[in-house]
Structures are given as C-alpha cells and as structure tokens.
Specification:
The chain has one domain (about 25-220). About 75% of the residues lie in helices and about 10% in strands. It is built from 9 helices and 2 strands. The protein has helices at about 25-40, 40-70, 75-85, 95-120, 125-130, 135-175, 175-180, 185-215, 220, and strands at about 5-10, 15-25. Strands 1-2 form a two-stranded antiparallel ribbon. The two termini are about 30 Å apart.
C-alpha cells in the first residue's frame, strides 16, 4: 500500500485537509517497471543490444590488453616476438582508446534517443499516474529502475561476451599459452570495470529523459493525441 500523509490546504475563510500520495513501496515501483519493460520488450532490446555491443568492445580491448601483458611478462622469447610483430604496446595504443571512447559515446546517444522515444510513447501513462497522485520522484524512480535493470543485463552480457571473444582470439595467436599466462586478477578487474562503465552509461542515458517525464504537467501529458 502507498504511504499517505495529510497536507493542510488553506483557502480564504476555511481550512481543509487533502490526502496526497507521498510514495509507493519500492516493490510496487519495481513491479510497474518490470511490466513496462515486458510491454515494450522489442524497443528495450534495442537499447540493451547497443549497450551489450559497446561493453563487449570495451571488455574485449581491456582483456586483450591484460592477456598480452600476461604473455609479455611470462618471459618466453618466442611469445614476446609474436607480440612485437603484432605491434604490442604495454600501455595500449591511443587509437584503441579513441575507438573505445567513441563507441561508448555512440552507445550513450543511442540510449538517450531510445529513452526519449519511450517518454514520448508514455505521455498519457505519465499523465494518468500524475493525475492519480504520483509525484515527480515516483516517475523519476520508475525510469531509473528500468534503466538500471537494462544496464545490469546489458553490461553483464557485454562483459562476458567481450571476455570470451578476447580469450578465443588470443588462443588463435598464442595457443594455450593465452590461458596459461592469463592474469586472472587483472581480467576480473577489467570485467568489473566494463560492467561498471556500462551501468553508468545506462543511468547517464536515462537521466535527461527521466527528468523530462518527471517534470511534465499532467494536463500537458493528457492532451497529447495517440
């Protein structure tokens, strides 16, 4: 059940009390967010897929660098020669860093665009909720919850796929040495970093659309034609 509190409302010559909805329980917000994701599954899949691709590329670059560093530090001369021929740089190339940054920016723009479209499609839904007493914070919470769930799923899948691809490609060049000299701790940190970046991107991407939805006046939302 929602929590209610009395807000005194003063009018000329009289004083009355108005019941206003303050906040819904978190589990109810989570339930509404899950239903919204299911009802717009295909559109949400586009957002998640873009996040998966961006995080996969980030994880692939980071873990590929970790594998190269592990092989380089192994001291095996023939493996070091293979790395040198491949243009290995201990700190990574500037080109790779710029490609990663650009891919993450494109992903963020895609998420913002998808969330803005979601807000447009839900004008009447948002207006109805506000007419029923939903506060700005409740609407904002719904969008952030949805983005968080998408961010977790997309980031975890992307990090796992990127790690698998990086390891498989390394094995084609170095054989089982890629596994033998795999720096587990560094790879684990790279996976966690990739997941964190992906989750942050999903929240950054939804922030502006969520603020637009939260600040929308009920009458403006309800007058939008289907």
């Amino acid at each position: 059940m929602s929590k209610l509190k009395r807000i005194p409302f003063q009018t000329p010559g009289e004083s009355t009390d108005i019941l206003a909805q303050v906040v819904l329980p978190f589990n109810k917000s989570l339930e509404i967010s899950l239903k919204s994701i299911k009802s717009r599954f295909l559109r949400n899949m586009v957002t998640v897929t873009s996040l998966v691709l961006a995080v996969s590329f980030l994880a692939y670059v980071l873990i590929g660098s970790d594998i190269s560093n592990g092989i380089y530090n192994s001291g095996q001369a023939y493996l070091v020669k293979i790395l040198d021929k491949a243009g290995y740089q201990p700190d990574g190339s500037a080109k790779e860093r710029w490609i990663v940054i650009l891919s993450l920016l494109v992903c963020t723009v895609g998420i913002i665009n998808a969330q803005l479209m979601a807000v447009t499609e839900r004008f009447r839904e948002i207006g109805t909720m506000k007419c029923l007493g939903a506060l700005d914070s409740f609407v904002l919470r719904l969008f952030i919850l949805e983005a968080s769930m998408q961010g977790v799923v997309g980031s975890v899948l992307g990090a796992v796929f990127g790690a698998i691809i990086a390891i498989l490609l390394a094995m084609t060049s170095y054989g089982w040495n890629a596994i033998k000299y795999l720096p587990i701790a560094d790879v684990g940190l790279s996976i966690l970093y990739s997941i964190g970046v992906g989750f942050a991107l999903s929240l950054i991407g939804v922030l502006y659309p969520a603020l637009i939805a939260a600040r929308m006046r009920p009458i403006e939302a309800m007058r939008v034609e289907e």
